[in-house]
Amino acid sequence: MSTSGGPFSSSFSEADLHNFVDGRLEPSRQAEMARRLKSHPADHARTSAWREQNELIRATFSEVEGEALPVSLCLAAPARLRCVASDGLPLNGQASSILERPRFASESNRRRARLLAITALMICAGLTGAGILLAHPPAAMNSPTLPTVDGLEESLAGRTAEAMAGAAAPGHRQARGLPAITIPDLTASGFSFTGASADQADPPALLLFYEDRSAQSIAIGIANASPAGQPAASKPLPSQHAVTWHKYGKTFALTGTIDQRRLNDIAAALQSSLGANGN
Amino acid sequence: MKLREDLNAMTPRLRRYARALMSGHPGGSDSADDLVRATLTRALGFRNHGTHADLTVRLYATLIQLNRDILAGASKTAPVPQPSQPLGMPAAPLAVRPGKLATSLMSLALEEREALLLVALDNFDHGEAARILRISRAAFLTRLTRARLALESQLRTQPGRAPDDHDRHHSHLRLVK
């Protein structure tokens, strides 16, 4: 295609110049173009400027691809949680007309669901070592209303979380494959146990919820380690306000609305409170 | 589950494109995530999505169409922010701040921005990009040329100088077929 009269000299086609800029030519043609462009300063300058544009654009947005995905964009998390998890980022009014956005009835449930989603994410991240989410939506997350065990008092601590989560699941189904663990007592850290639910992902995970006097919430996710026994992250993930670790054949994820230092302290207390077998 | 896995794998890249497409817009990062979420929701309904390459093309085409729909809906109810009015624009919370590139990108016509970013950011070849935009390859190259010339002009302008109509029209008029 001749571009005579256009922005280029007549020596090159528009397609060739773009292909050259984008590195889409065969190596031999690429070299030939580079050689020919040297005798056409205007075209050479233009293609150089366009290459710089490409580099600038890629450099500017390169970090986006490496960012942790918000839960709202993880398809393994069911729709209800995807919506809740993005509550902190209000939908642009322009988009809201075409996007469904179911809501939780109460702030308490909303907070819990957010923690549930993040904890599930962290459990998964701990098991796979990657940000890829659970392959199957957790049944508890898909239920029309979150399985709650609100009103539970601290006196319940000591019951097995497995049994409680099973009772909390829709239809009181006993969740299978949940790790057996006694509900940890975090009163020394200022947190009271408020409920549990089962996340029937692969592997299934127990999710335990706690709250302190100032209504700050934390959630603990516990799953049996995968058969492959992949190593889990053992250090806090700063952007998530979460801590994951792997011990006694289980993966633990602790997340919450509190600051990272306090979360680390609770994680340390939790680790020391677990028995030798991790129960 | 294969579709979900493919979509999950493509999400970071799609998000990057959406972020670039909407950079410089008020609430760009959040809006971009909303757009990606809407795209993924649509994509879950894809049937016979074909090869991975076909799915990729369809996914980007869906995102671009949704963005156009949103902008078209917004233009009926509220004035669209002009590129030369960056005041009041909130700082993007993450890596990309609405700097000169964001402002320059926003000054491009939407169809030019779509075309340029498909190639420059997402490395699509021209045929794939034309398929995504549902236009001929020749029409795509025309858009790409316009976009690159306009961006070149914008990036050359002095900092703080608002892109003016003269520049934009000039870059359009230079392209004589």
Overview of the structural elements:
The complex is a heterodimer of chains A (279) and B (177). Chain A is α+β, with helices and mostly antiparallel strands and 279 residues long. Chain A folds into 2 domains: 14-66, no CATH class; 71-273, Phosphorylase Kinase, domain 1 (2-Layer Sandwich), CATH 3.30.200. Chain A has 8 helices and 5 strands, in the order αααααααβββββα. In chain A, strands 1-2-3-5-4 form a 5-stranded antiparallel β-sheet, sandwiched between helices. In chain A, a hairpin with a 5-residue loop joins β1 and β2 (205-211). In chain A, α1 crosses α3 (41-66) and α4 crosses α5. The longest helix of chain A is centred in the first third of the chain and has 26 residues, at 41-66. Chain B starts with a helix and ends with a helix. Helix content of chain B is 67%, strand content 0%. Chain B has helices at residues 2-21, 28-43, 52-77, 100-107, 110-120, 126-133, 137-156, 165-174. Chain B is mainly alpha-helical. Chain B folds into 2 domains: 1-79, no CATH class; 97-177, Arc Repressor Mutant, subunit A (Orthogonal Bundle). Chains A and B meet through α1 and α3 of A and α1, α2, α3, α4 and α5 of B.
Overall, the morphology of chain A is rod-shaped
Element pattern of chain A in H and E: HHHHHHHEEEEEH
Rounded radius of gyration of chain A (Å): 26 Å
Report the CATH C-level class of the largest domain in chain A.
Answer: Alpha Beta
Strand order of the largest sheet of chain A: 1-2-3-5-4
Helix share bin of chain B: 55-70%
Number of domains of chain A: 2
The total of helices of chain B stands at 8
Poorly predicted regions of chain A = 1-5, 78-106, 126-159, 166-175, 227-240
Report how far the terminal alpha carbons of chain B are from each other.
Answer: 48 Å
Our estimate of the beta-strand percent of chain A is: 5-15%
The count of β-strands of chain B is: 0
CATH topology of the largest domain in chain A: Phosphorylase Kinase, domain 1
